[in-house]
Here is the input.
Amino acid sequence: MHISSFQKMSSFAKKYLTKLENKNISVLEIGSADINGSYRQLFLNDNWKYSGADIEPGNNVDIVLRDHYDWKNIKSDSYDVVISGQAFEHIEFFWVTILEIARVLKSGGLCCIIAPSAGVEHRYPVDCWRFYPDGFKTLARYANLEALEVYTEFEPGQYADASELWKDSVLIAKKLPYNVKRKYLYFLKSFLAKLLLKF
Here is the structure.
């Protein structure tokens, strides 16, 4: 994790979650393994339950995802907040991941995703993608999420760890309530997206 990413996640927590300080909420981080730092400290509230999920056991990992794209060990509609920072560029089929994020979010739940729009290759174990605002907006719409805030730090400040080179993009979105049409379309998208991974 780099400083610019931590600051953006901190800004999300202050802006969107401060009003929930006295409420019992659950927070799930996707790609939570502690690699030079963690977001966990931003969610240390006695009323909040933070869980970290990743594809391998490790420091700051509470849930090991048995299948990268089919999180059967995480119930649908079970989290108030889902966060992910510096993971989406390493996820080969990120459009399946965003559908899983939408699935595990409660109706009205929030997600915050941070990923670079620039920077050098950094494979862990792969480095596949960079993201711009329009891409994040499209991804939100695809997953039945309402984009509340989308931006890229195209002209970043100076950070002590030189993390301005990543020019991070941020998506903050809310899960829309399901109606019959939205629910049908979501399950159709999810089924087809996961089916195509097998070919």
